[in-house]
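Hi X.,

You mentioned you wanted examples for the new student's onboarding notes, showing what a folding record looks like when two proteins sit in one file. Here is a clean example. The first protein comes first, with its sequence line followed by its structure tokens.
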Amino acid sequence: MIPVIDLAMATAGDCGLRNRMLRQLDQAARDLGFMQVQGHGINRRVLGALQDAMDGFFSLPLHEKQQWCAPSAEINRGYSGPLSERLSYSAGVLSAADLFEAFNLGASWKDFPGLDLDPLSYPENIWPNEPAHFRAGVEAWFAEAGALARRLTRLFALALDLPADYFAPFEDHSVDVLRLNHYALPAGPIELEPGQMGMGAHTDFGMVTVLWADPVWPGLQVQGADGVWIDVIPQPGALLVNLGDLMARWTNGRWTSSLHRVLPPIDQEGRVSRRRSAAYFHDGNADATISALPACCGFGMPAPLEPITVAEHLRRKLAGSRALQVNTAAQGESQRIRRGEESRQAGNGPTTINDPRESSQRLPHVRAAIDDPGESSQQLSHVRAAIDGSQESRGSRGRFQ
């Protein structure tokens, strides 16, 4: 089960409730590094504007979206098309290309006047000129999700018996990125490669991620301590929160950087499903050095990893997922992915699809549904709208994480 935590307990004026919530947070961070949060305070109108912006952009023809790609893989901005990334490479594991498409934006060096920041860590954003409401809707969500991420780091500090503002010097010019993800399938024949995912297994790179996602299945899965993949379907009104590598590094492994993936958008009946998500990555200052907290080191505790700057850690991870250079420094993550495969082969796991290769048994039904739109027009109309023009890219798909 994915723990559900009510953040409103922190401001209820009751110390007992607040301390209970902090214990719940600490336990969730230890067990999974993943939780659902209620009481986050983000207005539903802001979410609605974000969804409208995403729907408007991802419904554009592929050739129009490709105008807004970054000039190189080093620049984590703009549009990423289907089959262009492999998230598991960031965790040191080879995989087939991921099916999702995405749009990335984030904190720019221009947002911090007076600081001499590296434009590679803080690149300028690439804004499409349509839909007209895209920028306003996205920027409003970026501001709200960023405020929530900083609220969470204060709670994290308290849960670790640190001053509430402990992490503030590490996040006052944080490398924050908002990734808008879209998962769907195009018209035409569909063939999945063995092991192909909507988004491959990976950990997030920074301090904490705030995620909104459509409550659909198949979709997001988180790996438990036993290697079994757990389905995650958000509760009404909830946001998803997961810890990243840097928070795990700070706590010397006391808290877990959650390993997660997204299944291909095909359900057990072979029907195509569409999924959206918006992941706000709060990664910390590029020039901050992350080393284990003294309270998380010592007798009976694992030897801490070598200190590393946020910029260097992000460089290694992004070189994997975007530049397709396998991250040889991610030995811990790759071992966890392999442990999950061993668990699957041993017959452990949920009753839901654990191995996307099982989806191939249902592909004839998917092909039939897509090849005969009269048979499933209601089922596929929203997919066709989302990927109009994408036939130029064989096997291209989009999805929402």
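Then the second protein repeats the pattern, sequence line and then tokens:
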Amino acid sequence: MYQFRFFVLSCGMALLSLFALHNLSGHVAASVPSAVPAAFSTPRSTYPIVDTATITRALTFLRTSQRADGGFVGFTPGQSDDFTTIKVALALNAARLPIGYLTTSGGKTTLSYLATRTYSYTHDLSGAVFPGRLGLVALAVVAGDADAAAFGVYPAGHAQAGQPINLLSALASSYHPATGAYSTTAQLGFSNGGAGSISQSYALLGLAAAQQPVSAAAVTYLRTLQEADGGWGYGFGGDVDTTALAIQALIASGIAPTDQDVQDGLTFLHRQQLAGGAWGFNGTPSADSTAGVIQAAAAAGFTPVNASWAASSGTPQSALSALQSADGSFSGNVLGTAHAIAGLTEMPLPLLGRAQRAERALAAIRDNPGRQRIVGFVRIAQRWRFARCYPGLQRCWYQSRHRQCAREQHIGPLLPKH
């Protein structure tokens, strides 16, 4: 009986993989590799998934930078940083590697570290939550194939001490229906839980990653934060990094890349591009900013990014690669390196885990007329909780029941040349 079930499941998965690599019009994307890479296997020292020397060197730098607790140093020497470690978890997913790819000799991973820090990072001393941080942690948890509804535990002395933390319900508790904002009075150091472009964007992205519904009011609120120049920032003009993040959040929430607010944001980013193809500050290229814009462009359907975003003296990818140091790092630190990996792979947020990718592949097949003959196999896959990476659906954007793969076609007008 087991052999029969395995045979049926294998046949069903073969059909699912075949149809998942087609777009709704039935055409196969020319860029889809002929063989599915052996992703999500045991940790390894080689890098066969996106086999470029640039990414390999970046991963090697990350491997040598991991601390014994599984985390990574941020701006405080000798101390693991929560935000930086989150970005490393996202970078691994962007490179189609399992979270265990970076594991210490003591068996610690980025998620091992984050699980011990979840409460202190997402709550202030009074117990109030930071909405943006909750969304950020949810992004990393989903990317690492863990459960955003049960990650980390409440500390001793808390009314729910020892119980798992539901990041999603905690985030929902900070939502204000009247305005659509996710905000609280949380305050810790220079951080606060107030409403803003970055916090709102991360909240929406965390919900999208966990397959949770996003209210129209929450999306509208993020729209209202758009600056007069088309970007998003802090109230005095657009900022490249914030704009790239907001664009990804809007598209992840179901807004089409052709939407005027998204197009205005893309136009803002295009105006900020340097002649060499990168983005930065005061004319100085930044790996962090360049990677973020590449992710936003990819989310909007411009893949490969170089095809539409080439500048007068270079392309985004060539400019980003040129920023790598001899030790494999970008910006000379872990954070810049993690950001760069996501940009080099052109994988926008949210980065889904294996289960989420499988669910979306199955949903796309279910919702697509003419694919009814494989419904039986879909049910088998659901019963057996099959979770696998479908490369052809890696860069899909979703709006209602209509799905198109940005990987297979450019969505929206090509941006003008400089």
